[in-house]
Amino acid sequence: MRYPLQSPDTITLGLQTLVCLDIAAVTAYDAAIDALEHPELARTLTGFRDDHRAHIAALTRHLNDMEARAPTHSGGLAFRTRGNVLFSASFGDNAILTAMLVNEFDTNMAYGLAGGYPGWPAAIRETIDRGADDESRHRRWIQARLTQAWVPAFRVLGA
User: Fold this and answer.
1) Could you give the angle at the alpha carbon of 71 between the alpha carbons of 65 and 75, nearest 5°?
2) How far apart are CA 81 and CA 28, in angstroms?
3) What is the pTM of this model?
4) Domain ranges of the chain
């Protein structure tokens, strides 16, 4: 049975949406890396940013193979993702990581939704699954880092 929304246009739009989100993520990671005080955090986030760049390259290849146009900007999404980081930067590294966690929730949700679409060709499915795994890893690392940072503060407060 053919999935009702399975069409080249649906596949193209799905890939273009993921590219836009990944471009916005790269923009946010650039801002976060520049603003972080601790170099070890910047090194880890540089790796995450590079994952997003790899997603963009892989998704763009699929779009090119389909003779579809790949986005070259985020369509305004970067204004919010980067803005979250820039606003948080004056409050320190944990605030920056919190802003990045919010951004990662968006990409995790998008890749999760994309992963639920049954109409992807096998090669695209593999790219989306790999992207979803990366996004999950980014989110888990940021959450763990923030948990480590906040647990001592709760102990001091007697919580």
Assistant:
1) 160
2) 5
3) 0.87
4) 8-150
R_g of the chain computed on alpha carbons: 17
Q: Which residues of 101-116 are buried (b: 16+ CB within 10 A; e: fewer)?
A: bbbbebbbebbeebee
Residue type (1 letter), 100: M
Cβ 101 vs Cβ 146: under 8 Å: yes
Residue 157: is it exposed, middle or buried by C-beta count within 10 angstroms (0-12/13-18/19+)? exposed
Question: Tokens 């606003």 sit at which residue?
Answer: 87
- For the domain made up of 8-150, give the CATH fold: Ferritin (1.20.1260)
Torsion, Cα 45 49 51 56, to 10 degrees, reads 170
Which residues make Cβ contacts (< 8 Å) with residue 136, sequence separation at least 6?
A: 108
Would you tell me the crossing angle of helices 39-65 and 93-115 to the nearest 10 degrees? 20
In tens, the pLDDT along 16-49 reads 999 999 999 999 999 999 999 999 999 999 999 9
Contact 83, 99 (CB under 8 A): no
CA distances from 57 to 32, 65, 102 (A): 22, 12, 24
